## 1
Amino acid sequence: MRAAALIPVCLLLFTAPYCRAQSEDSLLILQHKQMVAELDSLHADYLRACQAASAVDFVNLDQRARKLIGHYQALGVTDTHRYDENQEKRKIWENFDFDKVGDLGMDVGHYSDAIDYGGYLLRVADSLDSHSPLRNYTLYAEIWAETGEDAWWGAPDIDLAYQYEREFPQGPFIEQVLEMIGNCNTDLYHHLVCEKKGDDDYHDCTPSSCPDQPLDVQIAAARQEALKYWQRLKVRYPSRRAEFNEEIGSLTEDAVSSWHYCAD
């Protein structure tokens, strides 16, 4: 009787990992189906917005696109699985029209095969009306006008970033803008330090400095400006404190060794 009672327990021990894997796989498939459905819906609304040519419509589409991609990136399911061994996963994306992704300004990674979004719809909104009631959104697109948010090379327009901060200190993109200013000034500091050392490992797309000032003065000013913004971010967004402390530490310890923008 005792041995017989052990059989269900043993079966449970052996089958539990398999059942858990099956359950996780089913959830993943469901999430991918939901993502495809949301992309289809977003694209249908995009076509309607093209007819109306309304900046407000495109701002709303941009916010939906950011939320959609951010949500599924957090779940780890933006990989399209077009080449997955699992037939069911693969079939979800094989039947999807990827031209829709292109219309929405989204990209599919060459190696990752994952969908990403870099603000194209917001740039459309800005081109339609840069002074709409939603300028606190569209001005952000102008900061990246030269390259786009998803460009692998280039830097934002630091002057427009400062302008956004002045005009919209509580704007919807203020966290990104403050971080951008911190990044740009940290890169400028790194650029100037490399120049002082005679190291050519720096890039021309860093923000302009004050060439009429001695190099040490420029370095100190860039460091002070970067620290000011990292400290401000740390107070304003405490959930990211550890991340901002790393930036502060690299500046105070003279240990900046990488680039935020224009990296090879």
Note: Residues 148 and 228 are 26 Å apart (CA to CA).
## 2
Amino acid sequence: MAQAKPKLGRKYLVAGITGVLSILAVTLFSVSTLGATPLTPLTGSGANVVWPYGSGGQSSSNGAFTCGTTVRMTMASGFGNSGVSFDQNWSTSTATNNAFTGGISPNSAVAIHGNAGGVLVTLNFGIEVTNPVLLINYIDPGASMLFASGSTLNLVDWHSDKSGADPVITANSIALEALTDNENEGWAVQLVGTYGPTSGSLTFNYISTNDSTAGFSVALASGTECLPPAPAPTPEPVPARFTG
């Protein structure tokens, strides 16, 4: 993966005619180019999945939160270094460093496969989770995520080194033009909803112009990634002893 490059992407509202056209696009076509309008970070810290080491070309990885809650990630196909985990600090990557006000920990990411036709990625959570945040970096030009129809997306952070590149959001997708393959190009997007053994898996297609891999992980608001502790058992009453 390439070295990080200086931050050139914009994080301010696109003005003038471009801004007017963006508003018209949202109104008429449900498409938004956000021009990196200052986004609102999620309050608190993010708990990140830890992904185990895997050899390249794999199509799955069994991650877990530090408390033990499992997250199984499967891909329709493997390629290159897909399935390989690495020590990614999401709190310093300019693609995701503003996703949570308190940062994201621990450091970890896994490589996922994308191509022009889209590679289906499935996440199965060990417990019911709410509003997960998908983190991605090392994206290639033409990268996008396509979610199920009816999905509600909340883009919380992004960055591209390509001058003038803005995220393009539709009702169920996000796309961003990148300049190079580095840790500072990508986004953090929250999926509003509940996923788990009862609610079902989270799926999306990862699309890239050519066969490639990107860094990926999932974060939850800290404190929501674990099952609540079981209540202490109520002691059985001790019957009175007959002494007559």
Note: Confidence is low (pLDDT under 50) at residues 2-30.
## 3
Amino acid sequence: MSLETTMTTNPRVLHAASVFVENELLQLGAEHRPNGREVAAIGWLFRERPAEAHQKATSLAVSAVLGVERSMQAWLVAMHAAVQPNTEFVRRQKLWLSLSRGGLHVPGGRRTTEYEILANAGARWCGGLALEDEAEAIAEAARIVDAEAGSSIVMIERASESGLSSLLQHGWSIAPFGPPVETLAWVMGVNGLIFWPLGAFDDAESGGALLGAPDRLKVLFDSLNAT
């Protein structure tokens, strides 16, 4: 696949059967548990600077999933982290144009409607973008996720794409740790996967984790170990 890239270091690849109990990868609180369901994770961790590690882990995760799940599509679901002023200029820019004018390169691909989420005398704009399976597009999406807290990359069946609007038109809260509760719950509801970056400047390792149903991720993890 075109997502293959040359890695300067080999990551540690870890599997957590549950993210709600102590593990080496990612532990979330009970507020993240979607309707009582279990959530597992696969992680890719590098001893590199967080920005580079996030991009590499994102690429590896998307490549691993799309390499075996041909019916799935990767989406960037993004929202302004900061409340935008309530002005005509902001309403004309919406999401993608404002990110581009702010110095982020927005990859090409199919886009959903951009939704205005009213908040605190202003608004956040929210939208989805279908990612092409190219390394640069995935790297650009990873940079947007790093820049706009609460944004994430999800992988869902193409048959579930029409349901994205139910997530995007309401937006989501920005959790102090871990993916937005609303995004995780929606993704689990359609049996999809969500990628979440891990690690900050003072961590020994950085990268990211792919979250989803335990049975699906166990099969994927076993296939990674078999290659």
Note: Residues 50-68 form the longest helix (19 residues).
